[in-house]
């Protein structure tokens, strides 16, 4: 038995647009459903690697914790993007958003986003530690959390004067006063 072609070619990057850095947020929004997850950086599409099981578990456990503890005017989310410019978009691992929201949107605006969380993996270290905080800060997102794995350790930053300042970090319990009173036991998000 041989596989029959589905009549449709799988989506791929346009090499000319990629070399010219000519992609826009409109291109990302019009991607077919079978396209891989991508981020847009200065008009270049970056295919986001699939996260490991441990990475996903940390993100999912944090989403669940936020779902249970965040005030009703916040909505936690995963696997959605933040449109930080016409030629830039990012897909944080976990977000905390302001309600009301349109639940059918795949991309949100920075002013709807309260916290962005990146779970650091070996292949994303440089971007999660150095590049993404600068982009999120420039977009005006009030809080950035970075979660290191093995052991799980959370670093929480607040936007102050256009850049992020570390306000708390812990491998045991993250205690914050903003965006709401938080006492997050790190064991609750550790697989």
UniProtKB/TrEMBL annotation:
Write down the InterPro entries for this protein, in alphabetical order.
Answer: Nuclease_put_TT1808 (IPR012296), Restrct_endonuc-II-like (IPR011335), Uma2 (IPR008538)
Question: What name goes with this protein?
Answer: Putative restriction endonuclease domain-containing protein
Q: Which residues form the signal peptide?
A: none
Domain of life where this protein originates: Bacteria
Putative restriction endonuclease domain span: 26-183
The source organism is: Actinoplanes auranticolor
